[in-house]
Amino acid sequence: MAKKKYLIAEILCVLALAAFITGLWISRSGGTDKDIQTISAPVIQSLEKSGMTQKSNSDAIKTFGIELDKTEGVTYYSNDNVMDVSELLIIKLKDKSDGEAFRDKIEKHIEEQKKLYKSYAPKQYALLDNSIVEASANTVFYCAAENAAALNEAFKKAL
Amino acid sequence: MVFSSSTFLVVFLPITLLAYFLVGCFLTKNITVKNLILLAASLIFYAWGEPVYIVLMLISIMFNYIIGRDIALSKKDGGKKRAKVLFICAVVFNLAALGFFKYSGFVAENLGNLLGLQFKMPDLPLPVGISFYTFQIMSYIIDLYNGKIKVQKSILSFALYISLFPQLIAGPIVKYKDIERQLSRRKETPQKYAEGMSRFVVGLSKKLLLANTLGSVYSTVQATEFGKLSALSAWVGIVCYTLQIYFDFSGYSDMAIGLGKMFGFEFSENFRYPYIASSVTDFWRRWHISLSSWFRDYVYIPLGGNRRKTPRVIFNLMIVWLLTGLWHGAAWNFILWGVYYGVLLILEKYVLKSKLERVPAMLRRVITLILVMLGWVLFSAPTLSDALGYIGVMFGFGAGLFDANGAYLLTSNLALILIGAFCAAPIYKKLQKKIKPVNLSRVKAAAYPLLLILCYIFMISETYNPFLYFRF
User: Chain B residues within 8 A (CB-CB) of chain A?
Assistant: First the structure.
């Protein structure tokens, strides 16, 4: 009798694991319903003392070559000092299949920046080297900053 | 949550200690209450960063607890076949969970490249500590099946064994048989508490004062183009990384062992001055001891260990080191790093053993250290080509052997490197024995609070800096 109970409990655990993975998979690939302001707010709060200021959508278009009509909203912060590569870019996409294309554009921008700063500004190069680019479901996140990992955490929690 | 954060030091730890000692030790003096407090604290600690993965851990705890009881019952009833099937199911379940979260992306990417297809995998973050707690669970299941331990009937004790916060996210990997008794019977004493606290402060200082400072030197070197990097700069960089990874990881282990001691637990040592090793074999007896002993006990020995013919022993060694590399991460550089050690150990065992014995001990140590440093280049480089490029620079294929930048890097960090080398070798222990008549207890008593204050200053002035071994 006990063996039967154990077997049922084991099967239930396996089913729970399968349901958990499936749920996680769907939730991460389905995207968020929240608007760009809600997603960005806790990340922006963590930007204190970073020296980054908000930039316009046209600045984001110029810097990254992104198509604004494919997005539901963009949050772009960067440093006014040209010798500081700190940047934060959060995009909410209309179509999640565009994620990879946006990611490629950001990565191209990082590579160009790296070429500029390599050998001349090792600390800035290190920031670019440790920058985080994530295209997940209907959002894209890019951050080059000393606390990029913490900002990424804040972003994930906000989704 | 990380140990070197103000949330942990100022809020989490004091509250947990207060609850544990006030309620668990003074008011109730009950082991169940103590374990309950520790379990609740551990679950909060784990859920702090990525709360969703607490579900995965709870499912894992439930499944392994139940299947453990089922295996024990089947063995008791003489159902050997059923016990074997259950054991295989448990191993598959645990490896599947680990494999999905840690390796599925890597496998899909490489399989896709091989077949010219594109497999889409979700971009899921790795559950913190999954490699560590999966190996702990496996030690329980394997030892239970082999009849080396008794089944754990208390789900509270079992859950505490898996989730105990001091060693949950970056080890040491505690085998169930080593902690079994302590889960139901352990003694907290003021002496143990003081020892644990001092050990914690030592670990925190290793991380905040040494590892992070050394790490910034290596980051600067890594950011320089290979063509503009001299051999001297590259060696300074890798020496700093060699010291950084030791202080980072052994610092975490010190904190884990110290915290465990404060709560009455005794964890095994994870490091024994690895950089004074006289051979690669000796190095792996001193570095991440809990991982190498896990692979020895649960992979190498079951495969036949040393007791087989030479080709089979070589095969066994390569399997173990391939898995050791893979355990560290789903990337080719980690696999190559594991294979590198497999080849070195085989060469040492079968080809160079008699020759090495004739080499003076000091020279053997230097050779070992250089081989370990070359290994760290493979380990730390973002890609394989970066690693090979960096090794090339170390041997003069960059901007020559010496340059002004290299000299500046060396002179400006020499004091730091020397302090690091002093702390990474048992010099202090040897000195202590020689100057025994002098009572150092007062100096020590003053040094620990001072170190703690210094750590706190470093902590609030630094940005987020997680432990290197967290990603495993």
Answer: 49-50, 52, 55-56, 59-60, 62-63, 66-67, 69-70, 73-74, 82, 86, 89, 93, 97, 100, 122-125, 219-220, 222-225, 228, 382, 463-464, 466
